[in-house]
Amino acid sequence: MIELRDVHMAYGEKTVFSGLSLRFDAPGAYALLGPSGCGKTTLLRLIAGLETPQQGEIARPERLSFCFQEDRLLPWYSVAQNVALALPREVQRDRPRALRLAQEWLARVGLQGEAQAYPDALSGGMKRRAALARALAFDAPALLLDEPFRALDEQTHAQMLALVRERARGRLLLLVTHDARDAEGMTAVTLG
User: Fold this and answer.
1) Is-contact 166 173, C-beta < 8 A?
2) I want to staple 133 with a disulfide (CB 3.0 to 4.6 A). Which of 8, 86, 105, 159 is the partner?
3) Confidence at residue 192, expressed as pLDDT on a 0 to 100 scale
4) Radius of gyration in angstroms for the set of CA atoms belonging to the chain, rounded to a whole number
5) DSSP collapsed to 3 states, the chain
6) What are phi and psi of 44, to 5 degrees?
7) Could you tell me which residues are beta bridge partners of residue 107?
8) How far is CA 62 from the centre of its chain?
């Protein structure tokens, strides 16, 4: 469960939220919708603890998985190493096991042949899928996904949406999207 109580957030003179109160129950799937600039990304950043509101309270689980709008892949690591970073420490200590699990996640997003590649060798859509694989590999009770399907063709978008829905079963999913089709079957929360 994630709950925001009377949250106020502003950047300088620009108020993003004033008195915002929301509750997201787990398990559950929520689509955050609204025009660009209405605060969808800010909301996820507040929930993740990456931003601090000027007032209000936010209750959240200890562990969250976050897929940012930007891919944020480390350029000095291979794609498999980037995904392995999201695995539990005890798994990371067993390097062959960690890389095997990372490769399994890469296969699930259609990047099975790219495990040893470095991010700069990937297309935009491939980087997007690698970032999504990393977020999904992290075993957290809540998934925060900020436009995870941008730069994907329609078929790949549909495949990744199905994978996200599968991974989110029994968890809390907050999905920022501009595509109303992504929100089908989810509770829609419109901002702005």
Assistant:
1) no
2) 105
3) 82
4) 17
5) CEEEEEEEEEECCEEEEEEEEEEECCCEEEEEECCCCCCHHHHHHHHHCCCCCCEEEEECCCCCEEECCCCCCCCCCCHHHHHHCCCCHHHHCCHHHHHHHHHHHHHHCCCHHHCCCCHHHCCHHHHHHHHHHHHHHCCCCEEEEECCCCCCCHHHHHHHHHHHHHHHCCCEEEEECCCHHHHCCCEEEECC
6) -65, -40
7) none
8) 16
* Residue for token pair 């997007």: 128
Place of tokens 């990456």: 50
Number of neighbouring beta carbons within 10 Å of residue 148: 26
**What are the beta bridge partners of residue 190?**
33
* Per-residue pLDDT tens over the stretch 30-69: 999 999 999 999 999 999 999 999 999 999 999 999 999 9
Are 99 and 77 contacting, i.e. CB atoms less than 8 angstroms apart?
Answer: no
- Long-range pairs for 12-20 at CB < 8 Å and ≥24 separation? 16/42, 17/42, 17/43, 17/53, 19/56, 20/56
Give every residue of the chain whose pLDDT is below 70, as ranges: none
pTM: 0.93
User: Phi and psi for 165 in degrees, rounded to 5?
Assistant: -60, -40
Q: Determine contact, residues 68/127, Cβ cutoff 8 Å.
A: no
Answer whether 103's CB lies under 8 Å from 112's CB. yes
Q: Which of 73, 80, 148, 89 has the alpha carbon at shortest distance from 114?
A: 80
CB-based contacts of 143, cutoff 8 Å, min separation 6: 64, 65, 67, 135, 136, 164, 167, 168, 171, 172, 173, 174, 175
